[in-house]
Amino acid sequence: MSTQLSASNIFPEDYRGRLTEGITYDYRNNTLLWVDIILGEVHRISLDDLNKHEVLKWNEQGESIGFVALTKDLDTVLVCGKSGLAYGKFKANTLEYFFKYPLTEVEQKRLRSNDGIIDPWGNLWIGLMNDFHVTAKEGEVKPEGKLLRITPDLKVDVMIENTKISNGLAFCSKGTKLYWTDSLNYTIWKFDYDHETNTLSNKVPFLETKKVYTDVESPEPDGMVRTTNGEVYTAVFSTSTVLHVDKEGQVIEKIHVPAERCTCVTIGGQDGDHLFINTANLKLDDFDAKIDPTDFFGDLGGFLFKYKSDHNLKGIKKNFWGGDV
What domains, with CATH codes, occur in the chain? Predict the structure, then answer.
């Protein structure tokens, strides 16, 4: 099955970013949130009133934002910056660190936050990877990253080491299965997870994108979302598609997007029937390039896209960060 999106699916029409990521839906107030990693921005827009588009932004040079998560407070979000965790408060328009990752001095310079998830117990799982200035200088992403689990009382465990690009994550509803995206190995892995002992085991490939995109040089699985019946939607970078697979990892549908670099996807809307997609601009590495939100020709990277299904997509509601805010 194949579904084709077009410029008519751009949402909202007046916004275009550089490297949009981490899209998430808050059912409590019918809002959509996402980040622009490179610009260091958190966005929140009301689906009831598109004029209510709020933006939080780092002012410090060299900052970035890899992931944003919901908290128990509607006004406050958990933000994963370059070097640690911050709280973003929309009414006060503030972004302030409250915890720095326990890294060596070298790691602090070379790593940044990428994608993450809040598990059913309120813990944060966050992937770290080489920062932009490192890959620009060295021409590659090195296996220096890691996947961290951070509890609400800020205890840190390294769950997976020596990663290149730790990306999209998902838990099953009970939290006993973890899906982890290993982008540069073109694989989404599935693990058994024991919360009581905090251990991962029985690692098996759930989806290998090289086997699906045999004619694409680097079909990198990126941000993802899982449904209550075990299906997965994953953005696949450099393929202009979101891939929809069943609980066994078999392809159900390819959703074609008029942007080569699809980065993340989520399910939302009050009826649970919308798919929202992040993309990245082709000029994301050219900091002098102007990203034009009025240009609807050619590659449409940097825009967000909305696809309405004819049925509820059975998305799993996002968990809240368990820390005090």
Answer: 2-308 (2.120.10.30)
| Helix spans in 272-318 (H) | none
Cα separation, 40 vs 62, in Å, equals 9
First and final C-alpha spacing in the chain: 44
Instruction: Round to whole Å and give the CA distance between 106 and 227.
Output: 39
Active site residues: 222
pLDDT in tens, 52-103: 999 999 988 889 999 999 999 999 999 999 999 999 999 999 999 999 999 9
Q: Which DSSP state fits 185?
A: G
Q: Name the pTM for this structure.
A: 0.97
Whether residue 112 is annotated as binding a ligand: the answer is yes
- Residues 294, 15: Cα–Cα separation, whole Å: 9
| 140 labeled part of a ligand binding site | no
Query: Any known ligand binding at 18?
Result: no
Tell me the pLDDT band of 41, cut-offs 50, 70 and 90: very high
pLDDT digits (tens, 9 = 90+) for 263-272: 999 999 999 9
Report the DSSP beta bridge partners of residue 316: none
Compute the 3-state secondary structure of the chain and give helix, strand, coil in percent, each to the nearest 5: 5, 50, 45
